[in-house]
Amino acid sequence: MSKDVAELSLEDARAELAQLAAKLNRANDAYHTEDAPEISDAEYDSLKRRNAAIEAAFPELKRDDSPSDQIGAPVNEAFGKITHAVRMMSLSNAFNDQDVLDFDASIRRYLGLDDQSALAYTAEPKIDGLSLSIRYEGGKLIYAATRGDGSVGEDVTANARTIDDIPTELTDAPDVLEVRGEVYMAHEDFEALNARQVEKGAKTFANPRNAAAGSLRQLDPKITAERPLRYFAYAWGEVSEPLADTQTGALERLKSLGFSTNPVTRTCATPQDALDHYSEIEQRRATLGYDIDGVVYKVDDLALQARLGFRSTTPRWAIAHKFPAELAWTRLEAIDIQVGRTGALSPVARLQPVTVGGVVVSNATLHNQDYIEGRDNTGAAIREGKDIRVGDWVQVYRAGDVIPKVADVDLSKRPADAEPYQFPTHCPECGSEAIREPGDAIHRCTGGLICPAQAVEKLKHFVARGAFDIEGLGAKQVEMFYNDDQLPVREPSEIFTLAARDAQNLSKLANRDGWGTTSASNLFQAIEDRRTIGLAQLIFSLGIRHVGDTSAKLLARHFGTWEAFADAMDAAAAEPAMQSEGANKADLAASPAWQDLLGVDGVGAVMANSVVTTMAQDRERASIDRLISELTVEAEAAPTTDGSPVAGKTVVFTGTLERMTRAEAKARAEALGAKVSGSVSAKTDIVVAGPGAGSKAKKAQELGIEMMDEDSWLDLIGG
Question: Fewer CB in 10 Å around end: N or C, the chain?
């Protein structure tokens, strides 16, 4: 982090000024000469301010190549050079309202005016384009030049003649007239240009400013002629006779000569009027149809401009009030839902395009349902509780390369018919139910294997280690088959029909690039070898949320067979009361299927709800059933329990165990063929109660279930 300027030593200051000069010179070259900015406007402005602050504190260290004395960058040697008759200046910047008020105060001090004296300003949008000076003599266009370094610019006369907004002849104009303005590209033209670039396989442009600058500075005017460039006139250089007495009048004169001038320009009687117009322009920014990065204020009286004169690189009578570099207002045109590879439903704001921090923004993340409704994940209000609706004017922000987000909503501009957004309850990709689990901020599609947004990742999981583990069918092959039109694999069952379908195709897998007779044959055999699968592997392979390898084994051990597992899930799905967040103990007592599922030690409500919901989705279940029809599912192997006194019994441990850990007790019971449950029900056979046993022991007594202490249990199983 940079030291405060007051803490810098002489040597520190000298070294930092050298670094700043190098950085800013490089930034100027990238922006003005190469039309490829490497840093944001905000970072550039920050470096300039830092440089100015150090120079003010150490004036004796100001360098000969100080960025404070530079305008633009040297011309590209590929172009001819033109020396400006009147130097093209840059503008000093204001970054907040106080800076603007200070600007007004400094002018009044310089002119000897008190606070009550009239002092009008013009306020016009600051176009984000490329400065261009056009010289006319006797009404004819003589040459056009870029700003360059302010004194010498690049000769782009032939290119400028191709721009419709630039007249080649003037009537009733001063004999000598240098018109100055900005070459830019409208948003709709920029989008169309990039679309054509994509069609041609050519490089696209990052933003309209880069596109406009790159188009004007083409060595071949024919290329410029193909680009949709426009021009706003806003100033003048050398002129043989005055255009008017005021800035406002001069702009009207330029308009009468055939130039486009900005219709949003206003004459403001006070600094506050100018600030109000700034706010209005900022709000309208997205609807202007072209990029702006602030508002320029100029003293309206040209006689006062002449008295005020210039500093080394900027006029005293003008200032650019920059917009916050990472903020912009625009209209929210739609809210779309994108489904991620894990099934997460993510709302995305579709915005009227606006440039924020040098990037054209047309989308912004809306995170989740709570964010749209004006709450954070704790339920606390954000944006003062304002929700987000289609049609709203929203403030978007970005920092660095972060995805744009919505910072605020202007309720005063909300359409009368705007309605609260209703978050979808079903996946827009596959139509499956989209659920939001307790404690989770995200809605998730339960379609799993049949959801196009999730299918590839689910298939990759299906063939991975721990699941079907099919040799020769890895992530790369899964993607190939998923996108294949002749031999597609869009769901797991189609893996097991690959060989039969390949045999019916004229185009064989063995004849494709990267394949051969041996590799194709090996793949088909590897698939065939996996037609017989264990129940735990099968459950894990389905990629059900919250069900990992260990959980799959718990479920397989409890239910034993696929048929029993599927029937239990169907029974639970028929008791939907348990799937609600409000499910309570009374619901559980009345729902034996859920009671049994939640009784599996290690299976909680979240996992149980996920499994039941997945198996209850019609399309997902149909896909799973098609898979099962291709397989032989082996029952979960029960441990050898000959002579075991607890084989087949359901056991519940409650209270404190003193001679073994709970995990050890569970493992020994399962090794003897018992099922260990986490809850007491009518299906429970034995409750082992240690000190501190509470409600489970009480329920066991009520149900008449056999109870014993730890010593009795160990005696029963043989120590």
Answer: N
> E-strand spans in 379-451?
393-397, 405-410, 434-435, 444-445
* pTM for the model: 0.55
The vertex-463 CA angle with 462 and 468, nearest 5°, equals 90
Is domain 5-70 given the CATH code 3.60.40.10 in the classification?
no
Greater confidence (541 vs 10) lies with: 541
Angle at 592 between CA 588 and CA 595, to 5 degrees: 55
Look at the block and give the residue holding tokens 């045999």: 503
Task: Convert the pLDDT of each residue in 563-619 to its tens digit.
Answer: 999 999 999 888 754 444 444 444 544 578 888 888 787 788 888 888 998 898 888
Q: Domain 640-719 belongs to what topology? A: Rossmann fold (3.40.50)
Task: Read off the pLDDT of residues 12-25 as tens digits, 9 standing for 90 and up.
Answer: 888 888 888 888 87
Asked if the model's pLDDT at residue 690 lies above 60, the reply is yes
Collapsing DSSP states into helix, strand and coil, what is residue 139? Answer: coil
Of the candidates 126, 298, 322, 699, the residue annotated as catalytic is 126
Percentage of residues in the chain having pLDDT higher than 90: 46
**Number of neighbouring beta carbons within 10 Å of residue 662:** 14
| Token reading at 458 | 């689910």
Average pLDDT, rounded, for the chain: 87
**271-280, 569-578, 653-662, 688-697: least confidently modelled range:** 569-578
Determine the length of the chain: 719
Indicate the pLDDT class of residue 41, thresholds 50, 70 and 90: low
Mean pLDDT of 413-442: 90
For 588, residues 6+ apart whose C-beta sits below 8 A from its C-beta are 578, 594, 595, 598
Q: d(Cα 75, Cα 153) in Å, to the nearest integer?
A: 6
Question: Catalytic annotation on 508?
Answer: no
Same CATH topology for 5-70 and 327-413: the answer is no
Could you tell me which residues are beta bridge partners of residue 181?
Answer: 132, 233
Q: How does DSSP assign 480-538, residue by residue?
A: HHHT-SSS---SGGGGGGHHHHHHH-SS-GGGSTT--HHHHHHHHHHHHHTSEEEHHHH
CB atoms < 10 A from the CB of 466, how many? 13
**HSE-CB of 619 using CA atoms within 13 angstroms:** 16
Superfamily of domain 327-413 in the CATH hierarchy: Nucleic acid-binding proteins (2.40.50.140)
Q: Does domain 93-322 have CATH number 3.30.70.270?
A: no
582 Cβ contact partners less than 8 Å away, ≥ 6 residues apart: none
Which CATH number is associated with domain 441-637? 1.10.150.20
331: pLDDT strictly greater than 50: yes
Identify the bridge partners of residue 178 per DSSP, sorted by sequence position. Answer: 135
The closest alpha carbon to 142, from 118, 165, 129, 161, belongs to 161
Instruction: Give every CB contact of residue 200 below 8 A, 6+ residues apart in sequence.
Output: none
The residue type of 622 is A
Q: What mean pLDDT comes out for the span 167-175?
A: 95
Is residue 394 within 8 A of residue 406, CB to CB? The reply is: yes
Pairwise CA distance, residues 375 & 250, whole Å: 52
3-state secondary structure 639-695: CCCCCCCCCCCEEEEECCCCCCCHHHHHHHHHHCCCEEECCCCCCCCEEEECCCCCH
CA distances from 634 to 21, 499, 532, 561, 624 (A): 74, 23, 7, 7, 16
Question: Other C-beta atoms within 10 Å of 11: how many?
Answer: 9
Asked whether the predicted pLDDT for residue 667 surpasses 50, the reply is yes
